[in-house]
Design brief:
alpha/beta, six-stranded mixed beta sheet, globular, binds NADPH dihydro-nicotinamide-adenine-dinucleotide phosphate
C-alpha cells in the first residue's frame, strides 16, 4: 500500500522536494507498513515558504473579502466532491476507521472553510463619534501566521487554522505533525486548485525543530499550535520573545459528570464517545468520568455491556468502529499508563491490554474506583482509557472536577436543567456540554482555560485571533496647540 504525495512540501503554489532533509517514514497504523517516505524541511525550504508567504500576503489582504471567501467556498466544494478519497487518505495517515474519517475529519474542515468564507465579508470596524471629530476602526489581518498541528486530527486542524487565517487576509505556513504529514499537503493542493494565489498556504514537513524555526522568524506575526501542554509552553515562550500573537489548543483531563437522574443510556454513550472515538486520541475527551454513587453499579454494568460490542478491526473496513493508535510510541505510552493504573489499585472493568486486530491496537479500557490522586486521574493518556470516579454531592464533584491544571472541556449529564447550568457555570473549562459530549460544530467557539491553552478557534471568536484593530482618529477642525 502506498500513499506517496507528489513531494514532501507545498510552497509558493507548487510541490517542492529537497531530499537533503531528514527522512520521515509515514506508516499506516492499521498494519504498521510504510506508505510514504518524505523529507523534513531544510533551512532553504523554510526560507522559501516564509518568503513566499510574506510576498503574497499584501495583495491577498487587498482583495475584497467576498473574493477571498469565494475561493475558500470552492475549496470546500472540492473537499466534499472528493470526500471518499480524502477519507481513505486520512485513514491511511492516522489509522482512524473510515467510519470516522468519512464524517468527522475533512467534513469538519470543509465546514470551517464554508463558515469563514461567509464570515469574511461581515467583518467590519466601528465608528466612534467624538462631537466634531470621530474615530473609526479598521480590522486588519495580522500578516504571516504559522500553524503547527498535532497528529490526531491532522486535516481538520489544518483547515481550522487555514480557514480563518485566509478569510481575514493572512498568509499561513503550516507544519503538520511528522507522524501524519499527508492531509495538509492535500489541503494546499486543493486550495491552489480552487484559485488561492501562490504563497498564501504553504506546508512544510518536519519535527519540532522546523516548528521552532518558523516560530522564531521575525516575519511571523502569529502562531497557532495544536499540541501538548509541554510543547505549548515552549512555543508560547518562543513567541513571546518576538511579541507574537498566539492561539494554543493543548491537552486536557476533562471531567464528564453524570448525576443519578441522568439518562443512563445517553450518559454511557457519551462517555464511550468521549473516551473511545479515534481510539481515545482526542484532546477534549472526558477522561475523568464522575458518576454519582447511586448510579454507579448500573452505569458500570451497562458500560461493560456496550464496550463488549465495540467492533475493532481493519480501519479501511466500513464496519470497523475502533482502530489502532497512531504509532508504536503511543501504544507503549498508553500501555504504560494502564499498567501503572492497575499497580495503583484502580479496578479494571474491561480491556487492559493490547488489541488483537493489528500491531498498534489497544483494547478499549475502563477503570473503576479511580481516586483523584492516581496518575490515571491526573495525566492525559491520549488513548482508549476511561477512568470512572465516584461522587456524592454536587459541591464535592465541582471542586474535584476543577482540581486540575487543565481546563479544556467539561460535560454534565442530568435531567435537572437548573443544576446543569449551575454546574457548567462553576466548571473551569473553555468548551462544555450539557447532555452531550465532544460535539464541536464550527459555529461554536472552541478553546481552553488554564494550562490547556488560550485563544479560540471557530465561531466569530476566531476573528479576534486572526486580525487586529487599528484606530483612526479623524480631525475635522483646526489643531489646537498651546505653543
Ligand atoms: P506535540 O506537542 O508533541 O506536537 C505538536 C506539534 O508541535 C507537532 O507538529 C510537533 O512536531 C510540534 N513541535 C514540537 N516541539 C516544537 C517546538 N519546540 N516548536 C515548535 N513546534 C514544535 O503533540 P502531539 O502531536 O503528540 O499531539 C498530542 C497532543 O495534542 C495532546 O496533548 C493533545 O491533547 C493535544 N491536542 C490538542 C487539541 C486541542 O485542540 N486542544 C486537539 C488535538 C490534540 P513533531 O511532533 O512533528 O516533532
Amino acid at each position: 500500500m502506498r500513499a506517496e504525495p507528489k513531494a514532501s512540501h507545498f510552497v509558493d503554489g507548487a510541490w517542492l522536494e529537497d531530499s537533503a532533509g531528514a527522512p520521515i517514514e509515514v506508516i499506516y497504523p492499521g498494519t504498521g507498513e510504510v506508505i510514504a517516505r518524505l523529507h523534513a524541511a531544510t533551512p532553504a525550504v523554510i526560507e522559501a515558504a516564509l518568503a513566499s508567504a510574506a510576498r503574497a500576503q499584501g495583495t491577498w489582504a487587498a482583495l475584497r473579502p467576498v473574493e477571498r471567501g469565494r475561493i475558500l467556498h470552492r475549496a470546500a466544494e472540492l473537499i466534499r466532491v472528493r470526500g471518499e478519497e480524502l477519507a481513505v487518505l486520512e485513514t491511511l495517515d492516522t489509522g482512524k476507521p473510515l467510519q470516522e474519517t468519512r464524517v468527522a475529519d475533512w467534513p469538519s474542515g470543509a465546514d470551517a472553510l464554508e463558515y469563514f468564507a461567509g464570515l469574511a465579508a461581515t467583518v467590519t470596524g466601528e465608528t466612534i463619534p467624538l462631537g466634531r471629530d470621530f474615530v473609526y476602526t479598521l480590522r486588519e489581518p495580522l500578516g504571516v501566521c504559522v500553524g503547527i498541528g498535532a497528529w490526531n486530527y491532522p486535516s481538520q486542524i489544518a483547515c481550522w487554522k487555514a480557514a480563518p487565517a485566509l478569510a481575514l487576509g493572512n498568509a499561513m505556513v503550516f507544519k503538520p505533525s511528522e507522524v501524519t504529514p499527508l492531509g495538509a499537503l492535500q489541503l494546499a493542493a486543493i486550495l491552489t486548485e480552487a484559485g488561492l494565489p501562490a504563497g498564501l498556504f504553504n506546508v512544510v514537513q518536519g519535527m519540532g525543530a522546523v516548528g521552532a524555526a518558523l516560530v522564531a522568524d521575525a516575519r511571523v506575526a502569529k502562531v497557532s499550535l495544536t499540541g501538548s501542554v509541554a510543547t505549548g509552553k515552549r512555543v508560547y515562550t518562543a513567541a513571546a520573545a518576538g511579541m507574537k500573537a498566539v492561539t494554543m489548543e493543548l491537552g486536557g483531563k476533562s471531567p464528564l459528570i453524570v448525576f443519578e437522574d441522568a439518562s443512563l443510556e445517553d450518559a454511557v454513550g457519551a462517555a464511550m464517545l468521549g473516551n473511545f472515538y479515534s481510539s481515545g486520541q482526542v484532546c477534549s475527551n472526558g477522561t475523568r468520568v464522575f458518576v454519582q454513587k447511586r448510579l454507579k453499579a448500573a452505569f458500570l454494568a451497562r458500560l461493560a455491556e456496550r464496550v463488549a460490542g465495540i467492533v475493532a478491526g481493519d480501519p479501511l473496513d466500513p464496519a470497523t468502529q475502533f482502530g489502532p493508535l497512531v504509532s508504536a510510541a503511543q501504544v507503549a505510552r498508553v500501555l504504560g499508563y494502564i499498567e501503572r493504573a492497575r499497580a495503583e489499585g484502580a479496578r479494571l472493568v474491561c480491556g487492559g491490554g493490547p488489541g488483537n486486530a493489528g500491531p498498534l491496537f489497544v483494547q478499549p479500557t475502563v477503570f473503576a474506583d479511580v481516586t483523584d490522586g492516581m496518575e490515571i486521574a491526573r495525566e492525559e493518556v491520549f488513548g482508549p482509557v476511561m477512568a470512572v470516579l465516584d461522587f456524592d454531592t454536587e459541591a464535592e464533584v465541582v471542586a474535584r472536577a476543577n482540581a486540575t491544571p487543565y481546563g479544556l472541556a467539561a460535560g454534565v449529564f442530568t435531567a435537572d436543567m437548573a443544576r446543569a447550568h449551575r454546574v457548567i457555570g462553576a466548571l473551569q473549562a473553555g468548551t462544555t456540554w450539557i447532555n452531550a459530549y465532544n460535539l464541536t460544530p464550527v459555529e461554536a467557539p472552541f478553546g481552553a482555560v488554564k494550562a490547556s491553552g488560550l485563544g479560540r478557534e471557530n465561531g466569530r471568536a476566531a476573528v479576534e485571533h486572526y486580525s487586529r484593530v487599528k484606530s483612526v482618529y479623524v480631525g475635522l477642525g483646526p489643531v489646537e496647540a498651546p505653543y
